[in-house]
Amino acid sequence: MIIPRELRGLPQASGHPGVEVSAMLDAMEVPSHARHLLLQLNSQRTKGFLCDVIIVVQNALFRAHKNILAASSAYLKSLVVHDNLINLDHELVSPGIFRAVLDFIYTGRLSEAELGLEPSLAALLAAATYLQIADLVTLCKKQLKRSGKYRQLRSSTYGPYSKVLPCYPPRAPAPAPAPPAPPLDTHRAELYAAGPQGPSLPLCGLDLTKKSPPGPSVHGTPEGATTQAPDPIYRWMKPEPQGGPYPEPDEDKSSSGGGCEEEEEEEEEEEGDTGSSEEPPGPGPGPGYEPESLGHNVYVCIPCGQGFPSSEQLNAHVEAHAEGDPPGEPPGDPRPYHCGSCHKSYKDPATLRQHEKTHWLSRPYPCTICGKKFTQRGTMTRHMRSHLGLKPFACDACGMRFTRQYRLTEHMRIHSGEKPYECQVCGGRFAQQRNLLSHMKMHGPGGPADSLLAVARLGAQQLAHASPFLSDASALDSLYPLAKFTAEHLGLSQDKAIEVLHHDGRLIDRFSPA
DNA sequence: CTGGGGAAGGGGCCC
DNA sequence: AGGGCCCCTTCCCCA
């Protein structure tokens, strides 16, 4: 939309009637508008309202608004465009200093604490230079010159281009592991910020510097800032797109990822041949597994080879094994640590202790953001990641990011076309095991396919009288549902078979179970 | 409109 | 503590 020059309050050519309009608009201007707007934005920031970016500085997190950061700093602008999570080099800006920087951005002023202390001002100047906030650089210089320290500073360690900066305020020693902290005020913009008094909040058991999967970091370094080895958290961040919204897959990687179809087929065959690396766990096909003999009993007891249609039945069977003395089980109790509250037992006491927490009435690990409680610290920290939008695991092919490695592994099958989970009833293949399991419910007792299968058995028994290749009715346990059965054995398409079966209600009625 | 599949988010819990 | 897997659930798309 093009705004007429006069409405933008820009200078008008003399003699133009716009002069009058401009003067009128000046008269209509609310002088405090900008100030009021900034106050509102700062208020929103402190409450975390509409904040859309998190800035990580060492062990502190700050929430802010991308628009405001982008309008204030060229450097921050380049970062917020692509990421909701930004990590700043804590050697160039400490949490306390960044807090002052953020205050300046949202208020246009420096607090007296900063104005009075040269080391703080020097560090602030360095940070402002690093972040390319011209107004703050000017302000810091002016203040330092006023106090006569600027000249002295330029030759000192605290110079704005010095790599090593004072950590102001001095960091307090790492706090001892604290008992579960009370939930944070969810409206705080600053989650872990170390204020002038040192870390104002416990780390909540969440170490943001935890390892992350290796990956390229292509985050830009601001002009004038020192290039350095990527901080671990940099590697969590989405690589900047190069020539498109998502990076092109590496040529080297194309053979193991989203390569051409031929390559994918070759890969599948290789896997089939070698039975290699990623053998799907659970009910999928494995060594010694014979789907034909199991029919839809896809849950197999490994020791005895017996198949069951549901995990519940398999579990009951396994428990029966545990009570009796099943053949093939090694002597002695392999799980000697028994839970006093339930029937479960474990190999080691630590796992038992962990399990026993599931029986506790109060869960020991609360989320410091929402207060939700968990029985395991790991579950809580994982949960925290979803609050913070931390997705360390990135897909090389499409750039999509995940909170868990396992999710990425699952996701990669979309690109590879791999579908390792096969339904032993209908032959359908799935990339996600959970989708196979939900699919199996359809085949399971009470599922829609279950009644169809029952009908298939009965119908096939009837057909067996007239059809020589269906003489062995006991083999029907391994037959597909009726539609597939009918399609295969009567030479119909599956759709046609379903249509026929649906229209022939009399036949189904006649052979329905008594 | 409904059911099924694909894809993904999140919690539980064992190793 | 972190990895890995299971389970439940949701959302979207399509037939």
Automatic annotation (TrEMBL):
Keyword DNA-binding in record: yes
Composition-biased stretches (Acidic residues): 260-273
Stretches assigned to the C2H2-type domain: 299-326, 337-364, 365-392, 393-420, 421-448
Chain segments carrying region Disordered: 193-292, 321-340
Gene3D superfamilies: Classic Zinc Finger (3.30.160.60), Potassium Channel Kv1.1, Chain A (3.30.710.10)
Keyword annotations: Developmental protein, DNA-binding, Metal-binding, Nucleus, Repeat, Repressor, Transcription, Transcription regulation, Zinc, Zinc-finger
Presence of the UniProt keyword Repeat in the record: yes
InterPro entries hit by this protein: BTB/POZ_dom (IPR000210), SKP1/BTB/POZ_sf (IPR011333), Znf_C2H2_sf (IPR036236), Znf_C2H2_type (IPR013087)
Annotated compartments: Nucleus
Principal location: nucleus
Recorded coiled-coil stretches: none
One GO molecular-function entry: DNA binding
Residue ranges constituting the BTB domain according to the UniProt record: 51-114
Signal peptide residue numbers: none
One Pfam family cited in the UniProt record for this chain: zf-C2H2
Family membership: Belongs to the krueppel C2H2-type zinc-finger protein family. Hic subfamily.
Protein known as: Hypermethylated in cancer 1 protein
Source species of the chain: Microcaecilia unicolor
